[in-house]
Design brief:
single chain; about 200 residues; alpha+beta; 6 helices; about 20% strand
Length: about 200
């Protein structure tokens, strides 16, 4: 379920200390019900090498088209990424986060973990169009259970980045996010330890 930006900005996340120059682009509640200590399980699900055949046809088509376009226009060259065009956000971390867990490495996505706490994880990526953050928080709900909350924060790279973000917005809402959220929930439920057989 899509949430207002305040669902992210109103929480006392540590990300606010290091990414105050980023804009909250999207916030989503994730269908990942669990107990108070399951953020790490969700983070490992995000960073694992999922089979691309598990995603929807529309999602596969959009991602394939995006990577081909990026290759053609040179958006994703190594010198446009984190540590080259933009410094890593790890350079901004306060000492306690820098010395704490960074979070696992991604097996295939172009993101790098920045930090992980008991209830929060952030990862970053950059290319010629944008410096983006994926933030996953572990939040309580009204029933006393917990679930994941995903926020995407961005810092567009000039006019190109602003136009790019505007151009892909309809595709994100129609083709990417619905399929992504559904697949996150399906994988979470299929790997739940208390899942009933059948």
């Amino acid at each position: 379920m899509k949430l207002p930006a305040t669902a992210h900005t109103s929480r006392p996340w540590r990300i606010h200390e290091i990414a105050d120059d980023f804009t909250v682009e999207d916030v989503w509640a994730l269908p990942t019900p669990g107990g108070p200590d399951e953020l790490d399980r969700l983070v490992r699900q995000f960073t694992s090498d999922n089979d691309p055949r598990d995603s929807s046809r529309v999602q596969r088509f959009l991602f394939t088209a995006r990577w081909k376009l990026g290759r053609l226009l040179g958006w994703d060259k190594p010198d446009e990424g984190v540590g080259t065009r933009v410094p890593t956000l790890r350079d901004r971390l306060p000492e306690d986060l820098r010395e704490g867990p960074q979070g696992p490495a991604f097996q295939s996505a172009p993101f790098t973990s920045v930090y992980q706490t008991h209830d929060e994880w952030a990862a970053e990526m950059a290319n010629k169009t944008v410096h983006a953050l994926l933030h996953i928080g572990w939040v309580p709900d009204e029933s006393g259970a917990y679930h994941g909350q995903m926020a995407v924060l961005v810092k567009p790279n000039g006019l190109l980045g602003t136009l790019y973000m505007a151009a892909i917005k309809p595709f994100r809402y129609v083709g990417v996010y619905p399929a992504l959220i559904r697949s996150i929930g399906e994988e979470w439920n299929s790997n739940s330890p208390d899942r009933e057989p059948g």
